Amino acid sequence: MNIIESFKMATATLVANKMRSGLTMLGIIIGNASVITMVGVGEGAKNLASEQFKSLGPNVIFIVPGTQEERRTTFNAPKTLVWADAKAIAEQVPSVSEVAPQITRSQLITYRNRNANEQVLGTTPEYLSVRSFEVDQGRFFDDVDIQRNRRVVVLGSEIADKFFPQQNPLGKKIRVKNINLEVIGVLEAKGAFLGQNQDLTVYVPLTTMANQIVGNTSPYGTQVTFISIAAKDEDSIRAAKLQIENLLRLRHKITGEDDFSVRTQKDVLEIVGTITSGLTVLLAAIAGISLVVGGIGVMNIMLVAVSERTKEIGLRKAVGAKEGDILWQFLIEATILSAAGGAIGTVIGVTGIVIVGAVSPLAPTISPVAILVAVGVSGAIGLSFGVFPAKAAAKLDPIVALRSI
Fold this sequence. Notes:
This protein is of the alpha+beta class and about 400 residues long.
């Protein structure tokens, strides 16, 4: 018997037992769909993180306070960066164009009978250009507001809608930590950055934040929680990073481990990419367990089929079928089940990716490599797990089989 005849017989047998064939494929279908969907979602998370960082502009540099050990082991933010550090960088680092220090705290914000506990960010006018923000209404605070400690505030788009639905917020006053602040502007929608919704943030002058809301908490000057820097151009980023590190080491009189970290957008993207890639592999590996379970299901059902078809096997051997013919028929049946399950699972997985992209901010991608690997692995698993029952069928003694007729 040739391969084509074996394929026809295997197909006819599977079609005749539709329910059993469908249940056998279920594990393979779930495994393929899970692997393809998880890889797509993981890639989507990686793409989302990349888009968020790219929206800052290609020349952004970040400085965070504290040693790596402090950032890992303490809940309170280290107090090693001050406003004077930011001023020194702006004045003494030639490859830097603008510097925007910031103080960030979570505070209770109220307006009449509305209140919310949201992020309050004190910064300087340079923050707009460094972080690529645009003003939608009114204006951002300027150097005069900084110098005079003015009680003014600029709202993120979502918090403006939350506190002033269908109203013009300009000129209104909100309270932050029992201090009245006049709304002078509203920013355009920006979205989330590192899990923080920037549209639910309120922005105040750095001096107002330091002197009237949080108070000075560092003996060396106005403590800041973060410094954002814009290099002059992309080619200046490397030089700017080295110059900033050297300047801060001199200012902080560091002889051992740095009490700050300087990160470029590329550095952070690499870290985020490593994390998301690891999570994607982990999710795919967990989903891949379903493929193994599906393969075991194929083997179990094929073993049951062998016992049920003892008479058929005995008759075929009695009329001249060889062991190889029987072996091939059962292997082909296992392969068809796995390949069909892989195809159906691929369709379901791609559909799942499309649905996730439609209902979430992620932009999951359909990975041809993941599809090829999932379908290939499912086919290989079906073939591998089909070997044992196929051999069992091929080894049946025709005389013993015919006695059961």
